[in-house]
Amino acid sequence: MAVKLLILVSLVGLSWFAFYCFASRLFAPGSRDETRFLAGLSFGAGPIAMIWIFTTALLVIDGSLLAAHLVTVLILAVAVYVWRDELKPLPRCIDAEWGWRSVSALPMLAVAGAIAAILTVLAFSLPFNQNDPLEYAAVARQIFNTESIRNYPSTDPGTVYGPWTHPPAFVGMMAWLQSFPGDFEHTGLSRLIAPYFTVATVVVLIAVSGPAVGAAASLMLLTTFWYWHSVASAHIDPLRIYAFTSAILLAGFAVTPRRAVAAGLMCGLALFAHSAGVLALGASVAIVLLIGARQGRLAYSETGLLIGVAHAVVGIWWLRNLSQIGTLVSDSHAVWNLPALSFLELQARERGISSLAERLGAVFRGLSDFEGFGVWLYAAIGSAVLLAVSTYWRRTPLPAGSVAVLLASGTAILFWFAFAFAITLAGSDAAIRNPRYPLTFQPLIALFAASAFAASLPALPRPRLIGFGFAVLVVFGLYSQHLISPLVNFAIRDLDRFGYIYRDLAKPGVLSMPDLAKAKRQDWSLYRVIDRFNETGSGCLLTMRYSDPVFYANGCVINPIDPRLVPLYTSKTPEEARQSLAELDVEYLLFNYANRHAIDQSELRAIVDQSQLAYFAADKFETWYLYRIDRPSLPVGKVVASATNDDCLEDCGSGQLRSDITRNSVEIALKDSSGMPVEITGGEKALRVRAPLSGHGIVSLRLVRKDGEHSNPFWRGLLTSKLQGVIEFDVGLPMGVTYEPVLEIAVEPDSEVSFGDIVFRQVQPGGQD
After folding, report:
1. In terms of domains, do 601 and 642 share one?
2. What is the dihedral of CA 707, 708, 709, 714, to 10 degrees?
3. pLDDT digit string (tens) for 625-646?
4. Most exposed among 411, 445, 527, 748, judged by the fewest C-beta atoms under 10 Å?
5. Quick one: 627 and 666 in the same domain?
6. Of the candidates 161, 241, 120, which has an alpha carbon nearest to the alpha carbon of residue 505?
């Protein structure tokens, strides 16, 4: 394995030099600063370009990973040999500013390095457990096993159904990396993609702006909750954010047609990394046009070259999307758009974007979500004011090295807000659907804040006092995000969930040890349920959460957005629904509280009510249920608890608090007929709950742990015309843990919910180990 790792590192290094040589020939750097920037950019762009060559070669030479590897190495080696003279300026690009005399940057670099190290250890040592990385890994494994990328996008419902339109940079990188250990049983290398491109982003920020400004910007980025969460979760975000950031910064130097070609190449790689790269292309065009305007001309040739080269890089993958999915870029699926399922309404309500005012407010999420994004957007605004004062009021010229950085980052930020505001006003939620979307611009926000402040500080009165104020703002920013607390809690929670012991890192051959998710899966309830399904060895599993089962389960696993399920979701009777399931050979159904929406809004609810709870597994985070749909439901026994709403009528509308479900909500503690709080203790047997609910809005029945530990809802649903009346479902709880049931109703203008007595009965046979 050591030899394989040495080869891997050597190839990554070869990709750096190959990309630098090619880009340097196009870019023609005219100073040490530009040489340094291009060298830093190559640290991340090189591997992306290498994977572009690898996936393209595999598309042409179908059926041989080895041949694709050899072609890739040959092309990289030839590039270095042909343009080797471009490497000569590299040793001279490190001047005194970058030496140990740059002591002001050392504390910030040390803190940023410590955070990056912690995130790297977390990403490497924890298994894939987030939805998107698991689905990407499943598709990458299919590419690896078949030695073919001609089945990408993965639109064959009979294998792995992942119909996204992102080009294959991430999955191709996974397949390339996993070819070194030779399987997908040990995915530690793939989980290092996110930390690697985190470091690459830090490198390019420092390379373009210097050690002090770059270190400050890096620290702002690494202390952004949503960013470091994506790194520790081994998400695709660090890869796409790096590519986007590099494309924008390179466009800031596109003052000649040749440099526009280099910028177009980087925009193409950003498009190859993720479909969100279209934003990089749009912002880069705006930057190039602005550069031309500053020079008193219309930059038609530069703009045309940039757009043309970018499309040439990504064109082959867009054409494949068009042939297999029917569109170049899309984030929509037939199941999501079914009116009967009300998916879009649920999503809008859960994410607080159901009204126009809420949607427009979500455009500026960075100004209100301090825990998610910190105060760095405020820092950027404040720095812009200082820059305006120093530049225009005092007529102080900007430092030469700051112009391109400020122009590129500032234009991109304004482009994002203008774009997001316009399409949101037009009725689309594409820019606000997920908080990770505005995260794309976080490195540029951090870089603009640090660069503008550094450029304006010397010209301002009392620079030390202003610098101290900025330092206070940074400290407040860190405090507002509770940086240490969530980072530690994230580590403890997931380490506890997976039962991982860090001393395993010191064992020889750690990279080849059994994958943690398989070795330690008994510590997580979902994996215990997946193991139980694996033991059955028959039929297909329809799972409402696709990512974990498709990667870890054996046999047939069906995606809940599989287009073959449209007849099921639109069935008018349970009999029609059963027929649809039978045609797909579905015998088992897997879900938890958070993903039963498609069940409750279709005839699947009647099937679940009539089916046997074959197994459930509960931990202190959640409970997962495995139903055998071809067997009748289990009988129920005595009443364990009964809750009434008679004693809370006066208080039902009072009090607001933060909800796990959506924005603000009202919580109603359920009581028994004597007015006492209801208490329920978990055990080996599941509980059958009967809850009469009617009205409209998001409702959750929660069980709050009396010991104060983490609690999840045990049922959540959107009451619609389809979901009304008596709702019955099973609930499993961890052994020996006592809960109090609570009804939670989301506070929205059109919410109107009523409920009757809620009864808990014991399901007779056991279901939990």
Report:
1. no
2. 90
3. 899 998 888 777 667 666 665 4
4. 748
5. no
6. 120
pLDDT tens sequence across 698-738: 888 888 888 877 676 788 888 887 787 788 888 888 888 88
Residue with tokens 């069980």: 703
Three-state DSSP class for 444? Answer: helix
pLDDT per position as a tens digit, 132-154: 999 999 999 999 999 999 989 88
642: domain CATH number? 2.60.120
Which residue in 259, 239, 215 sits closest to 231, CA to CA? 239
H helix and E strand count, the chain = 28, 15
pLDDT tier for residue 23 given thresholds of 50, 70 and 90: very high
How confident is the model over 296-334, as pLDDT tens digits? 888 889 999 999 999 999 999 999 988 888 888 877 678
3-class SS at 657?
A: strand
Q: Are 613 and 656 in contact (CB under 8 A)?
A: no
Q: State whether 610 and 680 are in the same domain.
A: no
Do 471 and 581 sit in the same domain of this protein? no
d(CA 325, CA 38): 37
User: Which positions ≥6 away from 336 have C-beta within 8 Å?
Assistant: 343, 344, 561
For residues 575 and 660, membership in a common domain is answered with no
Residues 424-445 have pLDDT tens digits of 998 888 888 887 888 999 999 9
pTM value > 0.90: no
Helices 237-251 and 169-178, axial angle in degrees (round to 10): 120
Per DSSP, 393 falls in state I
Question: Among all chains, which residue has been given the structure tokens 């499309």?
Answer: 311
Taking alpha carbons only, the member of 176, 226, 215 closest to residue 68 is 176
The answer to the question of residue 501 being in a domain is no
Which of 608, 632, 656 terminates a domain? The answer is: 632
Orientation of helix 257-273 relative to helix 169-178, angle to 10°: 70
Counted residue by residue, the chain has a size of 769
Let me know: does 453 contact 470? Beta carbons within 8 Å.
yes
**Residue 556 is assigned to a structural domain of this protein:** yes
Using the CB atoms, write b or e for 271-282: b if 16+ within 10 Å: bbbbbbbbbbbb
Query: Does 247 share its domain with 267?
Result: yes
Domain coverage including residue 539? 524-632
